[in-house]
Amino acid sequence: MSTKDKYFVIGGLIICLVIAFMSPFLASPDPDGLEKSAEDVGVPEAEPSYTAPFPDYTIEGLEKIGEIAALAIGIIITLAIAYLVALLLRRRNPPETSP
Amino acid sequence: MHIPDGFIPLWQCAIYYVILIVALYFSLNWARKNLDEKAVPLMAVLAAGIFAIMSMNMPIPFGTSGHMVGGALVAIVFCAPEAAVIVFTLVLLVQGLFFGDGGITALGANVLNMGIIGGVVGLYTFKGLRKPIGKYPAIAIAAWLSIFLAAEAVAVEMWLAGTFPLVQGLAAMGIYHAFIGIIEAVLTVVVILALEKLRPDLLAWNKNKNLGEQKPEPSEVAAK
Q1: Rounded to whole angstroms, how far apart are CA atoms B195 and B207?
Q2: Crossing angle, helix A64-89 and helix B81-99, to 10 degrees?
Q3: B122 is a domain residue
Q4: Domain range holding A21?
Q5: Tell me, what's the pLDDT at A43?
Q6: 3-state secondary structure of A62
Q7: Cα within 13 Å of Cα(A43), Cβ side
Q8: In this complex, which of B7, B94, B164 lies closest to A78 when CB atoms are compared?
Q9: Whose CA is closest to B204, among B114, B111, B73?
Q10: Residue B182: beta bridge partners?
Q11: Using an 8 Å Cβ cutoff, are A62 and B180 in contact?
């Protein structure tokens, strides 16, 4: 990875973490468009059949700190997985010379 | 617009999974031919950024909130909806598995709406409008339309699932997402403006432009 790309990844990660620090305080707690539409037409909230380790981006027992940490964990997991997957999928250089 | 588990009957979820597998087949082929080394950090940062921005729900009228999705953004940056399919499959998997946001059974439908429909509508609206109205207005309209049509697709899926009545569902999803689309339009333009300013080499349209010219090798640039 070139220095420019390293700065790009670090810069991107910093922006993401800033969002993770802000959104537990700033994000609107109102239902999103789909949840509100479900309320409008009278669909009961579905019982989750699967329990995620950090449901709704929270860590049990920790308030805002838990939300920030859950988001930060998610950001790092997503960055790492997407980096690895892209690395595996990418075009090999030099391109294979197939006839 | 993450569809949770329980909103779509399982046999219909299976159909959306088949669509996802077909889309992934084409997207992996695209990546093998077109995703170069330099695009790896870009794809990683876009995925992390989309994960992060989806936590930032902003208020819209009617006691509702919405966040940027980013399907149009990824498709426009890479000039390929296939890139959006890959990014959204990964982001939605992480969100569903670790955070219970978006159902695991609904993963196929969620990638269809946000990645495939969002990416295809975003990219081709942009391509169609770029010449007549200019690059950034085209990006804004493409991003808005990508959210609006993805939301209406959700309404149709909810109707097929027997969860929402058709007209009420289309009206509710349409009205809320017409506002959420404004958030999408503004943030998509901001991110692409920032990329154009800081790393224009990462945008696919600048790469295609360079193909015609003699591109200096990095070593030559360093030698100057």
Answers
A1: 13
A2: 140
A3: yes
A4: 1-25+56-92
A5: 85
A6: strand
A7: 23
A8: B94
A9: B73
A10: none
A11: no
Residues 69 through 98 of chain A touching chain B, CB cutoff 8 Å: 70-71, 73-83, 85-87, 89-91, 93
Establish if B208 belongs to a structural domain. no
User: How many domains does chain B divide into?
Assistant: 1
Map tokens 């082929």 to a residue: B29
Give the CATH number for residue B162: 1.10.1760.20
Q: What is the pLDDT of residues B12-68, one digit of tens each?
A: 999 999 999 999 999 999 999 999 998 999 999 999 999 999 999 999 988 899 999
Nearest to B7 by CA among A33, A43, A57, A40: A43
Q: Compute the nearest-CA separation of B91 from chain A (Å).
A: 6
Scan for tokens 């955070």, then name that residue: B99
Q: Which residues of A touch B42 (CB under 8 A)?
A: 8
Determine the distance in angstroms separating the CA of A64 from the nearest CA of chain B, rounded to an integer.
Answer: 13
Instruction: State how far residue A98 is from chain B, nearest Cα, in angstroms.
Output: 12
Report residue B188 as tokens: 């998509």
- Which residue range forms the structural domain that includes residue B131? 10-200
CA Rg value for chain A: 19
Q: Locate B124 and state its tokens.
A: 């081709």
Is there a domain that residue B17 lies in? yes
Residues A54, B99: contact at Cβ < 8 Å? yes
Closest to B187 in 3D by CA, of B139, B117, B133:
B139
User: Contact B99/A28, CB-based, under 8 Å?
Assistant: no
**Chain B residues with beta carbon closer than 8 angstroms to that of A37:** 155, 158, 164, 169, 172-173, 176
Residue B104 lies in a domain: yes
Question: What would the pLDDT profile of A61-78 be if each residue is shown by its tens digit?
Answer: 888 899 999 999 999 999
